[in-house]
Structure formats: C-alpha cells, structure tokens
Amino acid sequence: MDQAALRLSELDATEPMARAAPHNVEQEQELLGAILVNNETFDRVSDFLEAGHFYIAAHQEIYTKAGQLIRAGKVASPVTLKTFFAQETKIADLPVLQYLFRLAANATSIINAEDYGRALRDLATRRNLITIGEDMVNIAYDAPIEMPPTSQIEDAERRLYELAEKGQSNSGFGTFSDALTEAIEMAAAAYQRDGHLSGISTGISDLDKVMGGLQRSDLIVLAGRPGMGKSALATNIAFNMARAHRSTQGADGRKVTTNGAVVGFYSLEMSSEQLATRILAEQSGVPSSEIRRGSITENQFQKLAVASQEMQSIPLYLDQTGGISIAQLVARARRMKRQYGLDMLVIDYLQLVTGSSKRANENRVQEITEITTSLKALAKELSVPILALSQLSRGVESREDKRPMLSDLRESGSIEQDADVVLFVYREKYYVQNKKPAEGTEDFFKWQADMERVHGKAEVIIGKQRHGPTGTVELRFDEEVTRFSSIADESRLPDHY
Fold first, then answer.
1. Domain boundaries, the chain
2. C-alpha torsion sign, points 316, 317, 319, 320
3. 8 Å CB contact between 228 and 309
4. What value, to the nearest 5°, has the Cα angle with vertex 232 and ends 226 and 238?
5. CA separation (Å) from 334 to 230, 263, 378, 379?
6. What is the longest distance spanned by two Cα atoms in the chain?
7. May I ask the CATH class of domain 194-490?
8. What residues contact residue 322 under an 8 Å CB cut-off, 6+ apart?
9. Residue 328 — φ and ψ, nearest 5°?
C-alpha cells in the first residue's frame, strides 16, 4: 500500500473493535487514476458506476468533477482537475495536485476498468444493504405510533427493490440482432398461444381480434360512467385469463406461464366476497341478486357447487385494502411477483388509489400524474399488463351522444399520456331505460322498440392504442350475471356449466 492509500486508511479507520463497512480504497484509487490517464476509461464505467459508489468522499468528488469535464468534451487530467478544487484543499494530508498525480501513477489498465467499476458498485450495494438492515432494526426498536409494522415492512421492501433496480447494469444500447431475436421469440410464443395472440387473451374473441390480447408492459385504462359495467368487464377478463392459465418449468426451475395469466386484482371498491359472488354468478349463470337473497333452486345450487369447485384452483389473487397508496400497491405487486409469479394486474379503480404524502398535499391532478406514472413504470418493471379502471367526468351526461371520448377522462392529461391503451365501456340501454314515457302513448311504443334494439348490447370503444387501430367493438352483455361475450360466438355456445 502506498503512502496516500495508507493515509486514507487511517482517515477511514473506526474504533478497533468495530467492523468497517465493505470498501476497497486501492481499487478506487487505481480506477480514478485510469480515468485521469485515459479519459476513455470513464466511458466504459459511467453507464453503471455513480459517484456514490465510491466510499471515500474525496474520491466521489474527483469522479464527479472528472465526469463533468469529460462530458463537456474537455480533458480530465491531474492538471486540469486541480483548478476545480480550492487551493488549500488536501486529500490524505497531501495537496490536491500531488494526490491526483499519485492516482495517475497508480492507474490500473483500461482493460481492467470495468471489472474494478463493478467491484466498487457491488461494495456500495453491500454498504446500502447494511444501512437498510440497521435502519430496520433501529425503527423496530423505536417505532413511532403512526408507523405500524406493516408500513415498516413495505418501506423496507421498497428500499430493497430500489436498490435491486439500481444495481442492474444491463441497461443502455443493445444490438439490433438481440431485438430481432426477441421479436421472433414473441412471434413464436404467439403462434403457440391460444388464439395466436401476441398478448394475453382477454377471453373475448372479438376484443382480441382488434387488440391482439393485452400486451406485456402496457398500461391499459378501462373507463366508463357508473353503471356502464367497467368493473364487470375487468372481472370477466381477469377470470378468463386466470382460468386459461397453463405453465411449464423453466431451465432455472421456476414456473413459466405458457398460456393465460396469474392475475393480481386490487378490488378497492368491492370486498373480496362481493367480487367472488360476481364471478360465481358469471360462471354459473345464476344471477348474483338471487345468490345474495338465497332464493335459488336446487338445480341452481348444483351449478354453483360445480362452478365453485372448478374455480378453487385458478391463480386469481385478490387484495381488498381500501384507500391503498401507490407505494403500497407497488410493493405488494412486487411481493406477489416474487411469491406466486404475476402475469396480469387489475386495479379497480384508479381514483381510489392515493399518492405519496407529499403529492397528496398538492392538487389532485399532480397526485393522479404520480399514480399513472408509477403504474406505467411498474408495468415495464414487472413486464405485465396493468388494467386500471377509471371514472369519467360528468361532461358525458350533458351531450346528446353520450359515447365517451378521451377528453372525458378525469384528470385526463396524465391518464391519456401514460396509458398505452384507453378503452371505454358504453351501454346505450342505461340511458334509454331512464327515458321511459307514460305507458300506452306513441312515445312508449317507440321507447319499447329502442329498448329491444339495445337490450343485451354493449360497446367497447378503443379511444387510444399504441399497437393497433382505434374503433368500436360490439359485445353482448348479460346484465343478470354481468357477463360480457362476443356477439358472434355466444349464440353458438352451450351454457358455461
């Protein structure tokens, strides 16, 4: 160890019995020296190495200033770097210029630079793990009243995942050949999947034909006025995906989904029991109102028993926590991905999610912006489609044609911007039935004709789609059992059970 490194080690030493945090002063010195000798070294490591990865504060400052010079197209050398330090500055009891020349003299080869950089980043990760662990212990000992243990767990999970994400070094440019390989693999998977879709099938063929299924990493917003059936459609899609789930064992021993999806469903409005009742009604054909009242026949009970038996094993997981924050939602989704696998996430609905405490004190538009941005980032991080339901503004009601459009989305700026797909559910019957005139009049007979025309029909309006066309898909809607299906196919299908 040279004199400068020895002095740094002395500066850095703690009490004799205490354990020093993981670090390597010599590697830091040799890598900084390599950068000062050959500025190309910085380009090799700057993609994954940050100033905070250096243990010695002076080294952090040298790396930062050298990087600023190199990015500005200038040369970073001991001489040029010296001018950016105060004249009286000393590092390890040496004048800055002398210390910088020492670094250059002890430089590692540019060939070893990436290995040194990754080693320093790994040491920094270990130091961060120690800090998180110490904070967990200290908070657990002296937890404030307003912080329950579950909040501490979620905060620790968040910090660990942030650390894991920062630690990934596979970002940056990749070859076009790699991208082509991924595209071919996606096409092969689509060929083998039910319906030959590039995404995950919704179980509603007419919708799949236009959308190609729900694509991984996409944020899909499903919006509608109250009573239009957006929760019913989301529930239908979630159950169809979970029921179609098939998996195989990958090379690393983990289960890999080959069809359908493992689905996580945040039911922020309905309880798990209400959601289960709705799915049970949809699958058995027994109206949910009769299930709740208990006014069912023996034959209907047998249908419920058969349906519930088959539904026991489907990978559909429910979270009914009301008023969940976006931070909690993200943490729980990550946890589910780790524990059960996760291929699809549903949030019913967007406006019931809260932002962080800082954003919550600001206006609602900024809070929704934080939520939609976080959901889009989560979809990309977990590589799953996220179906988020959203309310529409009352502006729809004041128009003659009540079909919704993008401008009707509440806080539409961020939702429309962050969403890859925007779907609207529209049922004309909802509005027609509220205009019932006096019986026996000419208007009444016209109203009856209109009711027959719109009975059992629904429209899914694709207002935005990055990967395909916009337009309208007409579906059949069975109001008694809240079931959406393709108009063309339903007439030829037998009962579900």
1. 3-167, 194-490
2. positive
3. no
4. 135
5. 26, 13, 9, 11
6. 105
7. alpha beta
8. 268, 352
9. -65, -45
Indicate the burial class of 214 (C-beta count within 10 angstroms; 0-12, 13-18, 19 or more). buried
Whole-angstrom Cα distance, residue 180 to residue 163? 30
Cβ contact 402:396 at 8 Å: yes
How far apart CA 301 and CA 280 sit, in angstroms, is 11
- Which residues, other chains included, contact 339 with Cβ-Cβ below 8 Å and sequence gap of 6+? none
pTM over 0.85: no
Write out the two tokens for 235. 């529930």
Written as six digits, the tokens of 236 are: 């239908």
Q: Supply φ then ψ for residue 441, to 5 degrees.
A: -85, 165
Tell me which DSSP letter residue 409 carries: B
Residue-level length of the chain = 497
Give the separation between CA 430 and CA 227, rounded to whole angstroms. Answer: 7
**Do the beta carbons of residue 353 and residue 329 sit within 8 Å?**
yes
Partnered with residue 277 across adjacent β-strands are none
**Both tokens of residue 433?**
């039935």
430 prior amide bond cis, ω within 30: no
d(CA 24, CA 12): 11
CATH superfamily placement of domain 3-167: DNAb Helicase; Chain A (1.10.860.10)
Over its length of 497 residues, how does the chain's per-residue pLDDT go in tens digits? 455 554 555 555 444 456 788 899 999 999 999 999 988 888 888 878 888 899 999 999 999 999 898 888 889 999 898 888 888 888 888 888 889 998 988 887 778 888 899 899 899 989 989 988 888 888 888 877 777 787 777 778 778 777 766 655 445 556 666 666 766 766 666 666 555 677 888 888 888 888 888 888 899 999 888 888 888 888 889 888 888 888 787 665 667 777 888 889 888 887 777 888 778 777 777 777 777 777 777 787 787 777 777 777 888 888 887 778 887 888 888 878 877 888 899 998 788 888 765 545 567 778 888 888 889 988 988 889 999 998 887 777 777 777 888 887 766 567 878 889 999 988 888 777 777 777 767 777 787 777 777 787 888 888 888 888 888 888 888 877 778 888 755 444 444 43
d(C-alpha 67, C-alpha 74), whole Å: 10
